[in-house]
Design brief:
Length: about 400
């Protein structure tokens, strides 16, 4: 009689690796903004060789593998190449990354660049990868804030609904019929007296009230001028992370809200959040006025009770778009013409009821004066932050508006 022997299965090293920890550790690499690179105009995705290097760096830095396994990999080039190839396969198979070319995984170059004749295959983050990084950043930020869960916007107005949080009111046509039974019966008794059967009239009806919860449309304006990666500090990658965290928060906790992303540099453009991962800074000036104009057009399409602009920048306005499309630039000091036309757009925002909150990553005297003027005009707030505490300041401000009464 034939017999079958079963042996204990020892999983492969790449199968045992925690991908979530790995992707989290790779977040700075995957959201690279061009910091430390010589070529600022290269907007292409990274190739697989750079991903392999980043994975190895993460393994050594974070300790995702045991010291024994790591030593074996570093001592055997063939085993290391196979391990990296299998890890990338898992990242693609489980939806964190996608390849720019549909080719089988086989290394023909010996250097991690896959494909015929060693032609590099590009990769980019998927929507799942973007969403995971947003979730991870949000979890880290909320952990530092000491918050665990949040509700929706509260306003000072009351409406009828299921959850009771205010005094009952006389029923009016169109109200949700969340009947205050005891109050309705008392009204009928006061009018008819104690008798059976008790006639309940339309005027006796009382309904319970809830706090009126409104929705909000938000435009995040990200400065991607060259200064965001100058002076020995990457300011743009933390800003990108905060935008992803805010997107995840709104999608999961405030489904009635909307979030749009505007990049401003020499001009301004709206960018889908799904493409935020591969956006890099460039050698641009700061056209704040054009960013505000685009944000207003986006918010005008939103039928929301509350509208706001969250502007993250480290530079003073230094560019304008002329009527003929040419870009006027003046990086030296605060150009009176640039400032005047930019403040004109701030005034337009105020007339439309759009709140502007500014998060500054620099403290130049001229810049501080400009930001204070913006805050005064639109009754917004100005926060002078660093890349390290930008997320805490921004999320605290956003969540406070959700939890406090709107006057």
């Amino acid at each position: 009689m034939a017999t079958t022997k079963y042996h204990r299965y020892f999983g492969e090293l790449w199968d045992d690796l925690d991908l979530e920890d790995l992707v989290s550790e790779l977040s700075d690499f995957l959201l690279d903004s061009g910091f430390g690179t010589e070529e600022m105009n290269d907007w292409d995705e990274d190739d697989l060789q750079s991903l392999h290097d980043a994975i190895l760096d993460a393994l050594m830095r974070r300790g995702l593998l045991s010291d024994e396994d790591l030593q074996k990999l570093m001592g055997d080039a063939e085993a290391r190449d196979q391990f990296l190839q299998k890890v990338v396969e898992r990242l693609v198979r489980e939806g964190y990354l996608k390849l720019s070319e549909d080719r089988p995984f086989h290394d023909t170059s010996g250097g991690g660049s896959l494909g015929p004749a060693g032609k590099p295959i590009k990769f980019e983050l998927t929507e799942k990868g973007i969403d995971f990084l947003g979730y991870k950043t949000l979890r880290d930020l909320l952990g530092s804030l000491g918050k665990s869960s949040f509700g929706r916007h509260d306003t000072r107005d009351l409406s009828t609904g299921v959850e009771t949080s205010g005094a009952s009111k006389t029923y009016e046509f169109g109200d949700t019929l969340n009947l205050d039974v005891s109050g309705t019966l008392l009204n009928a008794l006061a009018r008819e007296g104690l008798k059976v059967p008790l006639d309940v009239d339309y005027d006796d009806l009382l309904v319970r009230q809830t706090e009126y919860q409104s929705s909000c449309a938000t435009v995040v304006m990200l400065d991607c001028s060259h200064s965001m990666i100058l002076y020995g500090e990457d300011r743009f990658t933390p800003a990108k992370k905060v935008a992803l965290a805010l997107s995840h928060l709104i999608r999961t906790q405030y489904p009635g809200d909307t979030l749009h992303l505007v990049l401003f540099h020499d001009s301004a453009e709206e960018v889908p959040l799904s493409q935020l991962g591969k956006v890099r800074v460039g050698p641009y000036y700061t056209n704040t006025r054009e960013g505000l104009k685009l944000a207003q057009r986006i918010l005008a399409r939103q039928r929301k009770d509350m509208k706001q602009i969250v502007m993250i920048t480290d530079g003073k306005p230094s560019a304008l778009t002329e009527p003929d499309g040419r870009i006027y630039r003046n990086p030296f000091g605060l150009d009176p013409r640039v400032v005047a036309l930019t403040l004109k757009e701030v005034a337009n925002c105020r007339r439309q009821g759009i709140l502007i909150n500014t998060f500054m990553l620099a403290r130049d005297r001229e810049l501080v004066a400009f930001v204070k003027k913006v805050s005064e005009m639109c009754r917004g707030k100005a926060y002078f932050t660093t890349p390290h505490n930008l997320g805490q300041f921004l999320l605290m401000d956003f969540l406070n508006k959700k939890m406090q009464k709107v006057h």
